[in-house]
């Protein structure tokens, strides 16, 4: 077995693609049909790849926002910039996989590309809820709602990150 086995599993592009689908779906529902841009997915991955952050976010309300999370757990911001930078390639792979699998549509527009979640109310049955990922998926849904409620520039300031 490889020394980085857990690391490889955690950065699984299929799992991240499923999480991104839920993030994009909730973003679209909250933002009246708009689709999230690439920076939102990359920042989302940096948050979703951190177990303590996932545990905190998945228990919070959809109406909560980043400021409440930061006020309650400011320690979660430690290393966030580094986690986001490390999650960049995994984010691109997950989005590429999602587009190829037909669960995302890449939209153009000014600036960064955006990605819209495709499909009915849920993912196809084989992709729905793999064991052990329900907390990440719940966190991704909340992140989608939170990202839709604030301009990205405001979220950058709140999280103390650069993109």
Structure description:
The chain is mainly α and about 160 residues long. The chain has eight helices and two strands, in the order H-H-H-H-H-H-E-E-H-H. The protein has a two-stranded antiparallel sheet. A hairpin with a 6-residue loop joins strand 1 (about 105) and strand 2 (about 115). The longest helix is centred in the middle third of the chain and has 22 residues, at about 80-100. It is globular, with a radius of gyration of 15 Å. The mean pLDDT is about 85.
Q: What is the count of DSSP helices, taking H or I runs of 4+ residues? A: 8
- Low-confidence regions: none
The SS-based structural class is mainly alpha
* Radius of gyration from CA coordinates: 15 Å
Q: Into which percent range does the helicity of residues fall?
A: 55-70%
Distance between the termini: 36 Å
Note the run of SSEs as H and E: HHHHHHEEHH
Give the oligomeric state: single chain
Instruction: Sum up the overall morphology in one term.
Output: globular
